[in-house]
């Protein structure tokens, strides 16, 4: 099920990281900590503020003669809305859309997928652990900040989506059929006045679902550990503009899918990606662009995983967010 | 809310911290200076002021007694006393800005006024810890813990009050570098970054209705020393 993992990645990693824009927007103003392009940071939304979020993740796959018709690309688009319930808790909801496109003769899939919701609890270490207070100075923002992320998909998408030939491919379905759950932890620390490091670990767990054609599928567990460095390279206080180059190292471990109770071949494995990109902040908006490639892979039955994570030529990630 | 103060930081006018006030002590005599000797922004090290701008000072002996000290008429203003805390007040009066110049007068009768303000400043030096209680009645910065025991790298939470009441949203700077704004409780934390003399400043700008100026710009400074 070569698309399954990518689908899951889309649903969870991006929502979990949707607060990226905030650090730029505000948080830090022109002098505070930076934020990654794709990995998670620990910034929570300011109390009573809303965040509108948009993200596109385009994955272009390597193609092989043996895999024809190959998966050409997958494009995951997401709209999200966040709200700062108080100074330490933010709530998010996301609506994803995906497009999974194959070469001529293949079976494409496009559609709105499962809505996801997420809660984020922000805390920090300052002579002990505390929930993020209402007011922090730039000096407070230099402390270690953390956040705990809890999320779930809601089975709003059509899990039994049928492809053009009438078949159901769980990897191309528009939903998981049942909620999938995520748990994440982030840590962020400005190492210097300009350099910020962020760590982000998360796990994603699926439930077994029986599709309309009788097949049963449980996607493999996903575990991630990401590290990101952002550097405040350029600021223009008058224009309220800032630009940070960003480097990320992302580790992804995918469990083997279980198909009708049996481990599925050509699924699961581990990948390390590097991402080079940048994040720009302008007033209450933030824009991020990243170019991501797998630099190390250890995939189960790798020669059967065309179109899966680790088999990308590259991924391009763009996001925009506005706090209001 | 972190967002709002940080936006304030961005918008903070540089002119608010156009210069610093600080005391220098010799024996039991405190001399008041104005300038940029300790400031993060550029300018003359010492700026001479009119001695009449210095109003008075409150001297707390740390044993519950506070007395008012009056300066001499010479520059620099000097206050003599064995003070645990000394709070000096200073006002250069009304200022009016036109397209051509900025004059140290009220706006009354002047044409082409772009902006006018009344300037009031204070500086508080802490020699011994007497507690987290404001000393005066104007804009004032008070440490919430004993700052004299801190080291470089430590954070100090300060309380900004006006008439003894906490003030929200006041930008606070460390040696002229704005680091945050006070929260709803009037508090903000500032990290001490260098040894020796410390200078923390807060400033407000509020509308005036006396007909002589549009606003009152008030600045309070807190001065103390850390050993390392």
What report would you give on this structure?
- The complex is a heterodimer of chains A (324) and B (228).
- With 324 residues, chain A is mainly beta.
- Chain A contains two helices and 19 strands.
- Chain A has a single domain (4-323), classed as Beta Barrel (Porin).
- Helices cover 6% and strands 51% of the residues of chain A.
- Chain A starts with a helix and ends with a strand.
- In chain B, a hairpin with a 2-residue loop joins β12 (171-174) and β13 (177-181).
- The model of chain B is unreliable at 1-17 (pLDDT under 50).
- Chain B contains one helix and 16 strands.
- Helix content of chain B is 4%, strand content 49%.
- Chain A binds chain B through residues 25-32, 46-49, 84, 87, 126, 133-142, 237, 240, 323, and chain B through 1-7, 9-10, 155, 172, 179-185, 187-191.
Concise structural overview:
Chain A is built from two helices and 19 strands. Chain A has helices at 4-16, 20-27, and strands spanning 50-61, 71-84, 89-102, 109-112, 116-125, 129-131, 144-153, 181-190, 195-205, 209-210, 216-218, 222-231, 234-236, 241-254, 258-259, 262-263, 269-282, 285-299, 312-323. Chain A starts with a helix and ends with a strand.
